[in-house]
Give the backbone structure.
Amino acid sequence: MSKTILVTGAAGFIGSHVTHAFLERGDRVVGVDNLNDFYAPERKRANLDELRQNGVGGKQFTFVEADLRNRGLADRLLSENTFDAIVHLAGMGGVRNSIEEPRLYFAVNLESTLDLLEAARRRPVENFVFASTSSVYGATERIPFVETDPCDRPLAPYAASKRAAEVLGFTYHHLHRLNFTALRFFTVYGPRNRPDMMAYKVADNLFFGREVALYNEGRVWRDWTYVDDIVSGVLAATDRPLGYEIFNLGRGEPVLLADFIRRLEELAGRKANFVPAPLPDTDILSTHADIGKARRLLDYQPRVSVGEGVARFWEWYRRRVLVAKRAA
């Protein structure tokens, strides 16, 4: 049975993939995005164009260009539509950028979530799915990361804002019986990657000399997770109202950053040229998701290996980005 779903951040990297998946299976989607300039708005418009060119959606997709910080927007959206679920992917990303603009990160990541929760509690929304991050684990000593970790030592305002929103979700579940699921994403990459993310930056370094800092000589481990696997987890969480739950969405197999880069270099046939840098205070040496809980309760099964995922990312970058930049 099809659903009607509000997707925030629908024009972004993960949001556009999630929106496509909902539309492809026959759901109706109202997508909201402010198309801000954190990175080029043209890239987000291109994501929306891809949705339309792929022939999914049609009348089943309504796009609203608006900023969730505008008071009254959430109430208006929920009064004009009857949603089965809210999938709240909109947010300010970027761990290190949050140090410079902490108020902006809390306004977008926490206060906008509060407005959506307030609107949802007054209407019959069956499920609220929230995009969180592995960064909430901060300086944890437990490896792999487990959802029961206290997560009370965030290393940057970005992580603190996401953790605060998770906690707020519990409050609304407790007081208003709202189903709330927080999904902690681990190092997502793939087609439509944001240009500030590592995979994209390495590709730009290889062909356009974009300066990229290589922390700790590439001796950091990340739980690289291909975007299609993240999407499958988001859809599964949307379809399963579970009260209040938190899930790790990763691959569960950390890979050395240096090896990830080496794979891209092999595909591109070039060597990257990095600027050596120490590991920032906002980062830790390794991220590693325990995905046992997501396997049990969401039937989450990541399927794309890092080798295959990098090849898919590279093919998209070559076809969509490299050709366009060379033609410009």
Notes: Residues 13 and 194 are 6 Å apart (CA to CA). The two ends are 45 Å apart (CA to CA). The longest strand covers residues 127-133. The chain has a mean pLDDT of 95.
